[in-house]
């Protein structure tokens, strides 16, 4: 994630997953997106891949 546009795209895709996505925080400088959710990580990763950006799970 290199810009606010990328962060907004990720947030938009995740918002479509409904209220199971509790919170999304984007940190452009560290290129990280923190997602608080009740969903499985593979559901989140698959949704984020729809943005066309590379993503991986850091736990």
From TrEMBL:
<dbReference type="InterPro" id="IPR051881">
    <property type="entry name" value="Copper_transport_ATOX1-like"/>
</dbReference>
<comment type="similarity">
    <text>Belongs to the ATX1 family.</text>
</comment>
<feature type="domain" description="HMA">
    <location>
        <begin position="1"/>
        <end position="56"/>
    </location>
</feature>
<keyword id="KW-0479">Metal-binding</keyword>
<dbReference type="GO" id="GO:0005829">
    <property type="term" value="C:cytosol"/>
</dbReference>
<dbReference type="Pfam" id="PF00403">
    <property type="entry name" value="HMA"/>
</dbReference>
<dbReference type="GO" id="GO:0006825">
    <property type="term" value="P:copper ion transport"/>
</dbReference>
<dbReference type="InterPro" id="IPR036163">
    <property type="entry name" value="HMA_dom_sf"/>
</dbReference>
<dbReference type="GO" id="GO:0016531">
    <property type="term" value="F:copper chaperone activity"/>
</dbReference>
<keyword id="KW-0406">Ion transport</keyword>
<keyword id="KW-0143">Chaperone</keyword>
<keyword id="KW-0186">Copper</keyword>
<comment type="subunit">
    <text>Homodimer. Interacts with ATP7B. Interacts with ATP7A. Interacts (via dimer form) with SLC31A1 (via C-terminal domain); this interaction improves ATOX1 stability and controls intracellular Cu(I) levels.</text>
</comment>
<protein>
    <recommendedName>
        <fullName>Copper transport protein ATOX1</fullName>
    </recommendedName>
</protein>
<keyword id="KW-0187">Copper transport</keyword>
<dbReference type="GO" id="GO:0046872">
    <property type="term" value="F:metal ion binding"/>
</dbReference>
<dbReference type="InterPro" id="IPR006121">
    <property type="entry name" value="HMA_dom"/>
</dbReference>
<keyword id="KW-0813">Transport</keyword>
<comment type="function">
    <text>Binds and deliver cytosolic copper to the copper ATPase proteins. May be important in cellular antioxidant defense.</text>
</comment>
